[in-house]
Amino acid sequence: MRHPYRKKHDLKYERLFCAVLLWALLLVTMAGCGSFQDVVPEANHLETVPGEEENLIVVGFSQLGSESVWRTANSESIQGALTRENGFFLEFNNARQKQENQIKAIRGFISQRVDYILFSPATESGWETVLQEAKEAGIPVILVDRKASLEDDSLYTAWVGSDMVSEGEKAGIWLEDYLKEEGREEEEINIVVLQGTVGSSAQLERTKGFQNIAREHPNWHILKQEPADFTTAKGKEVMEAFLMTYSDIDVVISQNDDMTFGALQAMEEEGITTGVDGEVILISFDAVREALELVSQGVINVDIECNPEQGAYILEILRKLENGETVDKENIVEEKVFTKENVDEYLETRTY
Ligand code: AHR
């Protein structure tokens, strides 16, 4: 069964056809100039426009960027679920970390009258106007991964993602237990935090979750929290700055694995060791394969999983909506905590 406004979309395929034709013309022109890679994000997804007889469900997806290994896995999971074989035509747009690009993409999806809009908000605030436009056009919006802060929660139909406050709390609880095991629970502990993109729910919630635990420990001192944009390059830069300022860091918390890789480079260059037998306790988030290998080697003490494999959840929600069924507003993906003790059994099957 199609949702009711689908009948209003008589011009949908013609519009999609025009959009793809325009892209194709742009591609030919830019290829001639030899600079297409500079202007069109490689991850933007141009599939052959669906024929009307295919009766595909058209989904516009504004992904916030491609800053991390996690993000690539998340895009691939969604692209792998919303396939033609499963009855979908997915228009993928990479916003390259810019909210204005996401708003533009969402407006584009509205004018094409897609059936559903998916988007992962780069930051929490600033979405009311464009989501109101989607609502008025009768297009259901599914939030993916990160949250948007909205007074009116009728502006989206469902959200699929991680409980990031809980991720932050897991990091704090792990540290609490570890210090106890090591007999260091009374020691003064100096902590620095590499944060993700400022204003993103991943940064805000992981910070909040960790602080929920840290505030119970007056001997834990958060020396500095500095954004490093979830990237390796920025992670290295920010860690270098921490090392220039503080000579007595006990714990590094890095809000994603990519920043952890950068922080590790910075510490290695200064001859600082980390992990199980190292000088600095290293806590990371995401649990991508390369980081799990470092957990297995004892270089990262603990990796709090953030699960990017959200495609199957989204597929199920869209199928339910297509069948006229109600869906849960909040859909939280399953996640684990990896340490040297348990990581090896998961490493073999890690695909990203
Ligand atoms: O929102 C999820 C976070 O965004 C992941 O931890 C990070 O790697 C990504 O960039």
Key descriptive features of the protein:
alpha/beta, Rossmann fold, 2 domains, six-stranded mixed β-sheet, 12 strands, 41% helix, binds alpha-L-arabinofuranose
Describe the structure.
The chain is built from twelve helices and twelve strands. The protein is of the alpha/beta class and 352 residues long. The protein has two domains: 8-160 and 309-332, Rossmann fold; 164-306, Response regulator (Rossmann fold, 3-Layer(aba) Sandwich), CATH 3.40.50. It has a six-stranded parallel sheet, sandwiched between helices. A six-stranded mixed sheet has the order 7-6-8-9-10-12, sandwiched between helices. α3 runs parallel beside α11, α4 (99-112) runs parallel beside α5 and α6 packs parallel to α7. The longest helix is centred in the first third of the chain and has 22 residues, at 12-33. The radius of gyration is 22 Å and the shape is elongated. The structure holds alpha-L-arabinofuranose. The site of alpha-L-arabinofuranose has 12 residues, from α3 and β9.
> Strand share of the residues?
15-25%
Strand elements, count = 12
CATH homologous superfamily of the largest domain - what is it?
Response regulator
Q: List the helices and strands in order.
A: HHEHEHEHEEHEHEHEHEHEHEEH
Q: How many structural domains does the protein architecture include? A: 2
Provide a compact summary of the structure.
41% of the residues lie in helices and 18% in strands. The protein has 12 helices and 12 strands.
